[in-house]
Amino acid sequence: MATTADISRGMIIKLDGSLYSIVDFGENKTARAAAKVWAKLKGVDNKRSIEKTWNSGDNIHPVRVERKDYQFLYKDDSGYNFMDNETFEQIALGAELIDAPQFLKDGQEVSMLINTETEQPMSVELPDKIVLKVTYSEPGVKGDTATRTLKPATVETGATVNVPLFVNEGELIRVNTKNGEYVERVKE
Q1: What pTM value is reported for the model?
Q2: CA-CA distance, 24 to 43, in Å (whole number)?
Q3: Fold assignment, 129-186
Q4: Residues forming a β-bridge with 3
Q5: Mean pLDDT across the stretch 71-82?
Q6: What dotted CATH number matches 2-60?
Q7: pLDDT grade for 161, boundaries at 50, 70 and 90
Q8: Strand 129-137 vs strand 150-155: parallel, antiparallel, or unpaired?
Q9: Where in the chain is the domain with CATH 2.30.30.30?
Q10: What is the pLDDT at residue 74?
Q11: How does residue 154 score in pLDDT terms, banded at 50, 70 and 90?
Q12: Rounded to an integer, what distance in angstroms lies between the CA atom of residue 144 and that of residue 153?
């Protein structure tokens, strides 16, 4: 059994029947009362973000999680289909388990978090930054470069990303999958 002294960033714990990832944590000490341990938690199997406080030394319930590499194959009626890179087994998951499904493209390498107790997938994480091809973009207006003006562009996955005016159709761009923002233009 683990205690609050074992808390670390990224640890996944079971709390009130749900799984949460620890985003941040700290300790509050006062002269009169016992020390308290607080943590900011992000839901793994739900989309809630909460804060929790324990007395120092309280028991917590960590969940052992395994990170495996999978490859995205295709999307169909059953959901998003992935293949294990080691065993070649395929699994179909719903969009709610994927952190940025709009940026998935065929053959994309992803990391899947698997609960080792139940062998169930908990979430799918794309790389922080991926390279995508712009399939449609309005041409920029000449002379409109005094401010950091952005225009919408459609990428090969069908998602829309706001890009600077100098980005044209057919070019490769790097996109941050965490916030969906343009990072830079990529030379071929």
Answers
A1: 0.72
A2: 13
A3: OB fold (Dihydrolipoamide Acetyltransferase, E2P) (2.40.50)
A4: 59
A5: 92
A6: 2.30.30.30
A7: very high
A8: antiparallel
A9: 2-60
A10: 92
A11: very high
A12: 17
- Cα(102)–Cα(177) distance, integer angstroms: 9
Amino acid at 38: W
Residues of the chain with CATH 2.40.50.140: 65-125, 129-186
CA gap 77, 1 in Å, rounded: 42
Checking if the pLDDT of 146 tops 70, the result is no
Give 133-142's long-range contacts (Cβ < 8 A, gap of 24+). 133/170, 133/171, 133/172, 133/173, 134/163, 134/167, 134/168, 134/169, 134/170, 134/171, 134/172, 134/173, 135/169, 136/169, 137/163, 137/167, 137/168, 137/169, 139/168, 140/165, 140/166, 140/168, 141/165
CATH architecture entry for 65-125: Beta Barrel (2.40)
For the chain, what is the largest distance between any 2 Cα atoms, rounded to a whole number of angstroms?
67
Distance from C-alpha of 28 to C-alpha of 44, rounded to nearest angstrom: 26
The dihedrals phi and psi of 96, each to the nearest 5 degrees, come to -65, -20
Give the pLDDT mean for 44-73.
Answer: 87
Asked if pLDDT for residue 46 goes beyond 80, the answer is no
